[in-house]
Design brief:
The protein contains 28 helices and 15 strands. It is mainly α. Among the domains are: 206 residues, Alpha Horseshoe (Serine Threonine Protein Phosphatase 5, Tetratricopeptide repeat); 204 residues, no CATH class. Helix 19 links the parallel strand 12 and strand 13. 50% of the residues are buried.
Length: 643
């Protein structure tokens, strides 16, 4: 399969063309003429388009996108990791690292898109239809990039020409209003929706018509926060409805439930990852060892390690290991933790809910993954561990069965190539038994449910149990090292871990995951449609139909009726909560809160009370990076966004 997002390959193509052509070019204006020759050739032009896609690889499934797009919201907290984003403290400045990368990366995507748009009419070997389809990709990427920029930074620089062509505005830029930036975003995405092909064939990761329609609906709806709500919501609904009503024609579909598996579970099943019918736009990852045609090669899919509970310190007391168990991920950063609001209000805190989205969003069970040679190792509980965690002394000497095995079941082979499957060491692949008949598997080491359990259960069961009662103070804040008589020192690092990007089929090692990462999903579009109905003055009944379709596919067929909500329950607040249930961890929450008018101190005090530094009117946008300010001639005039 042709790889479209291989930066190394694009670099090689453009560099080779420049070298081979420069010998025949007059010395005058050689650099400009070399560039013209490269970009006006089909090979060079397509390499340029590929460059424009490149930013995806550094923001989705990677830290620099997660910080800006998901953190500092109602869903996640960290006491130290990515603290500038989670806490709005003094470290959130014009010099903060991830913030600078975000700015630079998306403006790089804009510049490559501008180059492609500028040179489109100069490429002679395309038919008119081919040219429109190709340049539509550049318009899509530019619109998508500016949507991220304006939602993070507000009204900043609006560039529609390549930096090499418009150097004066590069050196002395002017601010554009958010409204003006949205004019370009919507124009770009409208052009893309009209001119992109329905399918890009085998080239996963390229934008097609369904991606443009979905992103256009999102952009129209996001624009409502600046005014003219009914107008833009009506447009968003029309586009979303077109996509939903014509899924077969556009090549997409929701997964449907059956008696044993929900459609939501199928959505995240690794066997469905590489040809996923719900992914409208995605970061395409090549998992084949012989090629690994991705920027940074195998260094992909790091999302899961950032959201992992502490399997290195607390976990090792109970038999888990982050080094041996490649499935859970490496918790080397004691990272991002769900809020009480997410665990107990967004999701229903009960043992067996009809809604399967919690269990398909989080790991809550952690098993003994000790290894002895090539096999598992049992783990015996000592008096030191029992006393440390104040468990029943009768548990001293209890054996937690080893469950580590080599993953072999359900392997997938990709691209007809030999790859790494069959070499994944993971817990839950040996000794998954309940020989003592206590209702729990004998290899369970740690359990972090989102529902309450009795004090007796937590005391006497032979594994560590950490429920919301141990995770959170009564005021909803995360426990600290001094909480609960000192037990908070252990409990503060124990929590459910995000598992959407941990399907065992695509594990590379305990940090890296080689599955495709969705940037826009069909499930999101259903929720956009429901929201657009309400914002455009439509009926709650119509909005409920969109939501109930999505909610029913989150349950097995025998429990679908438990998921149906009445029209009267459908409000904008309900939809915002539903978006968290459906999309938690998928890098959309920041823009959701902005659109719903919830990115303010009053709302965050209730839903994420650990956030104490949020300043209304300031923190609704991020600081403009110092590197940009230092590079322009009018930094004082331009401003820093108040930082």
């Amino acid at each position: 399969m042709k790889k479209i997002l291989n930066l190394k390959r694009s670099l090689a193509v453009i560099s080779l063309l420049l070298v081979t052509m420069s010998c025949d070019i007059d010395e005058v204006n050689r650099e400009v003429q070399d560039t013209n020759l490269v970009y006006t050739s089909v090979v060079g032009y397509e390499g340029l388009i590929n460059y424009a896609y490149n930013s995806l690889y550094y923001f989705y499934g990677k830290l620099d996108g997660i910080g800006a797009q998901e953190l500092g919201t109602d869903l996640w907290w960290s006491e130290s990791y990515l603290a500038p984003y989670t806490q709005y403290g003094s470290e959130l400045t014009t010099t903060q690292g991830q913030n600078r990368v975000f700015w630079d990366g998306f403006y790089a995507a804009v510049n490559y898109s501008n180059l492609a748009i500028y040179y489109a009419d100069k490429v002679t070997d395309y038919t008119e239809d081919q040219k429109k389809a190709k340049v539509a990709e550049a318009h899509f990427i530019r619109g998508w990039s500016y949507l991220q920029i304006v939602e993070q930074y507000g009204g900043v620089v609006l560039r529609t020409l390549p930096s090499s062509i418009d150097s004066e505005k590069e050196n002395f830029p002017i601010r554009s209003s958010e409204e003006k930036i949205y004019e370009l975003i919507l124009s770009d995405l409208e052009f893309a929706a009209e001119n992109l092909p329905v399918s890009q064939g085998t080239e996963r990761g390229r934008a097609s018509k369904k991606a443009a329609l979905g992103m256009l609906a999102k952009a129209y709806l996001q624009r409502t926060r600046l005014g003219d709500e009914v107008t833009y919501a009506t447009k968003a609904l029309a586009v979303a409805k077109d996509l939903i009503d014509n899924q077969v024609a556009y090549g997409c579909a929701l997964y449907t439930s059956d008696p044993t598996t929900s459609g939501y579970a199928k959505l995240w099943d690794g066997l469905n990852n590489k040809m996923n019918t719900e992914f409208l736009f995605l970061e395409s990852i090549d998992p084949v060892l012989e090629t690994l045609a991705n920027p940074e090669g195998s260094n992909r899919g790091r999302t899961r390690q950032y959201y992992e509970m502490d399997l290195r310190h607390v976990g090792e007391d109970w038999g888990t290991t982050q080094s041996e168990d490649q499935w859970y991920g490496r918790a080397n950063s004691r990272g991002l933790k769900p809020t009480k609001y997410l665990l107990t209000e967004i999701f229903t805190p009960e043992k067996d809910p009809a809604d399967t989205r919690f269990e398909n969003t989080f790991f809550t069970e952690y098993y003994n993954s000790r290894r002895s040679g090539s096999s598992f190792q049992n783990w015996t509980l000592t008096a030191n561990v029992i006393n440390k965690y104040v468990k029943d002394p009768a548990l001293v000497g209890h054996v937690i069965k080893g469950t580590l095995g080599t993953y072999t079941e359900g392997q997938v082979h990709y691209g007809g190539k030999t790859n790494f499957y069959g070499f994944v060491r993971a817990s839950q692949h040996s000794n998954m038994v309940d020989n003592d008949n206590d209702g729990w598997l004998d290899g369970l080491s740690i359990f972090t449910p989102n529902y309450a359990m009795t004090a007796s259960e937590k005391y006497s069961l032979p594994f560590l149990i950490v429920t919301p009662d141990e995770m959170f103070e009564p005021n909803g804040k995360w426990v600290t090292a001094t909480s609960l008589g000192g037990l908070g020192a252990y409990y503060k690092d124990c929590h459910p871990s995000l598992n959407k990007f941990s399907s065992i089929h695509w594990i590379f090692n305990n940090q890296r995951w080689m599955g495709d990462v969705p940037i826009l999903r069909l499930g999101d579009v259903y929720l956009l449609a429901a929201e657009a109905v309400l914002r455009s003055g439509g009926s709650q009944t119509t909005a409920a139909e969109y939501i109930n379709t999505l909610r029913k596919r989150a349950a097995i067929t025998s429990r679908e009726n438990e998921m149906i909500i009445a029209p009267g329950e459908v409000t904008l607040d309900f939809i915002l909560a539903e978006r968290a249930r459906e999309l938690a961890g998928e890098q959309v929450r920041w823009e959701d809160l902005k659109r719903f008018g919830k990115l303010n101190n009053a709302y965050l005090n209730v839903t994420n009370p650990d956030i104490t530094g949020f300043v209304d009117g300031k923190h609704i946008i991020r600081p403009i990076p110092q590197t940009f300010l230092d590079a322009i001639g009018n930094a004082d005039e331009f401003g820093t966004n108040g930082y």
